[in-house]
Amino acid sequence: MTKVLINEQLVEEQDAKVPYNDRGYVFGDGIYEYIRIYDNYMFTAKPHFERLVRSAGEIGLNLKYSVDGFIELVQELIDANGIINGGVYIQVTRGAAPRDHAFPEESTEANVMAFTKSYDRPYKKLEEGISAVTTEDIRWLRCDIKSLNLLGNVLAKEYAAKNNAGEAIQHREDIVTEGSSSNVYAIKDGEIYTHPVNNYILNGITRKVIKSIAEQYEIEFNEEVFTLDFLKNADEVIVSSTSVEVMPVVKLNDKPVGDGEVGSITKKLQEGFTKYIAEDRK
Ligand code: PDD
After folding, report:
1. What is the pLDDT of residues 54-103, one digit of tens each?
2. pTM over 0.85
3. One MF term in GO for this entry (predicted)?
4. Cys-Cys crosslink for 149: which of 28, 66, 213, 237, Cβ 3.0 to 4.6 Å?
């Protein structure tokens, strides 16, 4: 039987209920994380929970757990569900209260919820690559906060799905920001280019891992804005996230990226990523 974490309780899935006036449900007033599980172990757990703590701080939400407290609580759920490979979704809302846009009374308790999912690494796609389409970035100006408000991202991903693509790469005017649920990289003449960390993108944990692998392999990692044209003329394009890892984009708006094959820099980063998974466990 599958368990869901509701505050500090592990409850059966069918008993996991959310109050009708929870602010996450009514306003999208909350934050979340999605963490990968490899071999029953939460990959890069600390940076994920640190980002959750940061997101909470940015929206003035009081968290009652420390990073270590969260890790312990969520690992219990993973063990209870016997997850070997998969992911865990964790969200915290500002709690249940009468509907009013302004924050509720201080005494309102945040609501924590987490559930797991079991699945393997996307080996076939990692080897063959995916296609992507470009679309205008219509989201708010605090994309650095991993907030529950994902309507812009949802619409972008749906646009990709409608166009038989795996990801939608967003741009503000001419500047490429990030994917609907991933960070984006253009590779040109052996160097990696990606949007700098600021309010226009989520500071991806996978992006951090890729940066450290690039440094290790002495591949130039340029945190600079780049244009749609630059993306379209790149030798290789990658999107990265907790779920898709280092994912090659071999087709963009129905045109091949570079020679249409997974490129050599991408392959090196993928190799480094697999090693990093083993290292992170130690
Ligand atoms: N999303 N940018 C956006 C908008 C994202 O939603 C994500 C991840 C990323 C990559 O972040 P990370 O490497 O820390 O996963 C970038 C997760 C996977 C999700 O929403 O499920």
Report:
1. 999 999 999 989 999 999 999 999 999 999 999 999 999 999 999 999 99
2. yes
3. D-alanine-2-oxoglutarate aminotransferase activity
4. 28
Residue 282: band (very low, low, confident or very high) from pLDDT cuts 50, 70, 90: confident
Report how far residue 49's alpha carbon sits from residue 77's, in angstroms, rounded to the nearest whole number: 16
Catalytic residue among 146, 255, 268, 275: 146
Please tell me whether residues 77 and 34 are part of one structural domain: yes
Whether residues 246 and 163 fall in one domain:
yes
> Is 124 designated active site?
no
Q: pLDDT class for 250, splitting at 50, 70, 90?
A: very high
Residues within 6 Å of ligand 1 by CB: 34, 153, 178, 181-183, 202, 204-207, 240-243
Nearest ligand 1 atom to the CA of 143 is 4
227: containing domain? 123-280
Separation CA 92–CA 20 (nearest Å): 15
CATH (domain of 154): 3.20.10.10
User: Per the structure, how many domains does the chain have?
Assistant: 2
Q: Are residues 243 and 269 in the same domain?
A: yes
Q: Are 78 and 116 in contact (CB under 8 A)?
A: yes
